[in-house]
Write a structure and sequence with these properties.
By secondary structure, the protein is of the alpha/beta class. Helices cover 40% and strands 14% of the residues. The protein has a 6-stranded parallel beta sheet, sandwiched between helices. Strand 3, helix 4 and strand 4 form a beta-alpha-beta unit.
């Protein structure tokens, strides 16, 4: 995670492209990188006559179960869309509840993440949540930095269009001062400027709650990812739901524009 008060400087993984060209992800292969749009907390609460914050709390429990299940199944990176840059349009009360829940989760779960070998990272613009929460996030990242069983990436105040625009702007600035030729600005150059550049390419993107759209989440990274849309509301998502999604993924033939 970048420091909330400093600009993002990507960590480059040599040889990592924006797509896994030349490989076939079908035939029962396990995805290395899974992302989930966690949707449906409010509807889950409404169906039970509960306040929305109760849905968010139940959703946090689903996060814990899903991280554990993903790690047990060999997923290397799990990226969760927790708060989009558009979510600020929600009521101030709900935003406050979400912020308090994130603070509570960090305080309560850090020991569990450390015990279970979970490395925690963040993408987006977490500084917008204030210095207290940003400090807690930085501390959590530092505390778990040597863990290797699974990397849990939380997208907070994240918008994919803004991420791509920022990547293009950094490359343009380098070109203007002569550090980079225009011919060198290609897909790989852009990919290396994204906040996800340190991790494997996205293999599988899941969205819960029956909505069928990406909502400005990992637009570049999802170019060749398999997409699965589930009717399950996020608080009801569990290991069995993850297994079903992984089963769908394993049954698909990933051609990356080629032929089988």
């Amino acid at each position: 995670m970048r420091s909330p008060s400093k600009p993002f400087v990507p960590n480059v993984v040599e040889g990592r492209g924006s797509t896994s060209l030349g490989t076939d992800g079908g035939g029962g292969q396990q995805p290395r990188h899974v992302a989930i749009i966690m949707d449906g907390n409010g509807r889950w609460a409404a169906k039970r006559g509960l306040p929305r914050v109760a849905g968010h709390r139940a959703g946090a429990e689903a996060v814990r179960a899903t991280v554990r299940a993903a790690a047990e199944r060999g997923v290397e990176v799990l990226t969760l869309y927790a708060f989009s840059s558009e979510n600020w349009r929600r009521s101030s009360e709900e935003v406050s509840d979400l912020t308090a829940l994130m603070r509570f989760y960090l305080d309560r779960e850090i020991a569990t993440l450390e015990r279970d070998g979970v490395r925690l990272e963040f993408i987006g613009e977490p500084a917008a949540f204030g210095s207290d929460l940003a400090t807690r996030m930085s501390d959590a990242v530092e505390c778990t930095r040597n863990n290797r069983k699974i990397t849990l990436v939380i997208a907070l105040n994240y918008g994919s269009r803004a991420e791509i625009a920022a990547a293009a702007r950094r490359l343009a600035e380098r070109a203007l001062v002569g550090e980079l030729s225009l011919d060198a600005i290609d897909e790989l150059a852009i990919d290396r400027q994204l906040q996800t550049s340190s991790w494997p390419d996205l293999d599988l993107l899941i969205r819960t709650s029956g909505e069928v759209r990406l909502s400005n989440f990992l637009l570049w990274q999802a170019a060749y990812a398999e997409l699965i849309f589930l009717d399950t509301l996020w608080p009801d998502f569990d290991a069995a739901a993850l297994d079903a999604a992984l089963g769908q993924y394993a049954a698909r033939q990933r051609r990356f524009g080629g032929r089988s």
